[in-house]
Every structure is written in structure tokens, then in C-alpha cells.
Amino acid sequence: MNVYVHPSAIVDQGAQIGEGTEIWHFTHVSSSAIIGSQCSLGQNVYIDNHVTLGNGVKIQNNVSVYEGVILQDDVFCGSSMVFTNELSPRSAFPHDKSIEYKKTVVERGATIGANATIICGVTIGEWAFVAPGAIIKRDIPPYSLYAGSPARQMGWICMCGVNLAFRGGQAKCRDCDREYRLEQDRVTITKQYS
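Request: output the structure for the sequence above.
Response:
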């Protein structure tokens, strides 16, 4: 199997790791984690039990992905960003049962910038972009750009990562020529290129 695991990393028995995935220094993958193909887990990453990562996921240094978090294909997690999985954590009253963890879904192609915090129970739409340092406390739609603390929408973004400027409900990316439609605060792609 074509998987690279750095000698300092720990991959517990039972973890499923896809072809071409790289696991770097001091990273720990728990026994019931499922990691897709062509992923990259940077230094000091923790993947909890019952976590699923799609194909092509890139997780930069110092990120913990806790139970309840699902990362779909091609998600990018910047350095030191944070996922939570409990809304009311207490040391004296631990919540340590899977049913108590809130589900967080990061859909295909979304980017989460360095030092951002994702409060559990939200869905980050496909190809959305969360700016560095943002705090996400609610669902964000596909192709949206969010920044700030708490985060608010700053605009719309192309699959390739370039800001979109809508005129009359239509936008064309200046870099890749993909075309989009904006209706009722939802963006859909109308013309795509490979």
C-alpha cells in the first residue's frame, strides 16, 4: 500500500488509510478513523475515533479533528484551526458518549483558514472559505466567504478561491472563467471548466 507514515507518528491498529496519504511528524490517528486517499496530515495532527476524512483532504499542523466531525473530499484545514464537539463542556460533568457529540460537516472543497474556530453542530457548505481567525457559530452556505469574530459573510468565492463579483445575479470568475448564478442568497455554478 502506498501510504507514508513518519516514524514519529502513531497510527492505531484498525485505522483505515487510503492510497497515497501522507502522515507527518507526531501525528496520531485513532483506531476507528477512516482517512481517504491522497490526504496530507501535517505535524502534530490528531484524528479521533469515528472521524471520516474524504479523499484529497489537507490538514496543516496542530489541528485536532474530534469525534462528530466529517470532512468531505478536498477540504483544507489551516494550521492551528479548532473543531469543537461539545456545546457545554465541563470537567466535573464529562460528556464522553458518542450520542452527546454534535455533528459538524465540512462539505467538499471548503477551506478553513489558520486559527479559525468551528463551533460544533454546523455545516460549512461546499467550496466555502472561512478566513483565518474566524469563529463560525452557524451554518454557512456553499461558495460563501466568512470572516470575523463572530464571523459574518463578506462575499462569495469561486471554486478556485477567487472572490466573485455578482452583477444582476450573475458572476464570472476572472481567473478560471467558471460562471455562477445568485438567487435568494444561494449560489449555484452554471458553467464549469476542468
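Residues 4 and 99 are 33 Å apart (CA to CA).
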